[in-house]
Design goal:
UbiA family prenyltransferase, UbiA_prenyltransferase, transmembrane, mainly alpha, transmembrane helix, 289 residues, single chain, membrane
């Protein structure tokens, strides 16, 4: 029984962190280091320590998010570990403190500036979960800022923030804000039942989808900027079309034709895969800007 309980707890800890998201965040941290200092920076110890730190911060964010969302998840996502009983609130609280402490400790190894940035990010993630999540656009923008900080943090380990890194941060901000807005359409029933005010509960699903489409179009336009700015070659443009532009435009058109739950689920799945496909054109940006 004891072994079974420990196993269940470990599974709950693993689930609550959404581990794959930490992996994605770590990859984009390394991308920031690469765009800043090239292949030498990519293989530096500082870059990989930075990637681990970002993964820990992302895991922390998901843990506190689930701690705050217990009542909402009880209505809409009963499979999550805190609601399903695979993890207790007390254990989740301790786990969040451990993750935050590890992130701050490792950041101190890199210097005071990285540690200050990590502390600010942890505070912002906490503020999002406790205050901003159930707001119209503010929470979505906050999440976009947190995501945009990832390549910037990696660039600090690579030698400094270049113009290419700023462009990537801007693209990640727009992509994530649009993604977050679209996610409110999938969660609108549970959010409304819990009394939360989000883009979808305030503007309705059709209104939230229109906002998403405008943001997605803006993402496409900004994604084209690196070429005229001299940050990328034709190889970037050729990779951008199938990896980012066409999938985004497909989702926009798909949601023009239908706003059913099935269509929204498919659209969110496509956008999630785009966190991987977007890596190719980003890696083709110049690291000498």
């Amino acid at each position: 029984m004891v072994a079974s309980g420990v196993r269940q707890q470990l599974i709950g800890l693993f689930e609550v962190t959404r581990f794959t998201n930490s992996l994605y965040a770590g990859m984009y941290t390394l991308v920031g280091a690469y765009l800043s200092g090239g292949i030498v920076a990519l293989w530096s110890g500082a870059a990989w320590v930075s990637a681990v730190i970002v993964g820990l911060v992302v895991a922390f964010g998901f843990v506190i998010n689930d701690m705050v969302d217990v009542e909402v998840d009880r209505l809409a996502k009963p499979h999550r570990p805190l609601v399903a009983g695979r993890l207790s609130q007390a254990d989740a609280r301790i786990f969040a403190l451990v993750l935050a402490s590890l992130a701050l400790g490792l950041a101190l190894v890199l210097g005071w500036l990285p540690m200050a940035l990590v502390a600010t990010t942890l505070a912002l993630a906490t503020f999002y979960s406790f205050v901003l999540k159930g707001t119209v656009l503010l929470g979505n923008v906050c999440m976009g800022v947190l995501i945009a900080l990832i390549p910037l943090f990696g660039a600090l380990a690579g030698g400094g923030i270049t113009l290419a890194v700023w462009v990537v941060a801007g693209l990640m901000f727009l992509f994530d804000v649009s993604h977050e807005v679209l996610k409110t359409t999938a969660d609108h029933e549970g959010d409304r039942a819990a009394g939360l005010t989000t883009v979808a509960t305030y503007a309705g699903v059709p209104g939230a989808i229109r906002i998403f489409q405008l943001l997605a179009l803006l993402f496409c336009l900004v994604a084209l900027l690196p070429w005229p700015l001299g940050l990328a070659s034709w190889a970037y443009a050729l990779a951008l079309v199938p990896c980012a532009l066409l999938p985004t435009l497909f989702v926009i058109v798909l949601l023009l034709r239908s706003t059913s739950d099935e269509t929204i689920t498919l659209s969110l799945k496509i956008m999630r895969y785009m966190w991987i496909t977007n890596l190719l054109p980003i890696l083709l940006l110049s690291s000498r800007s």
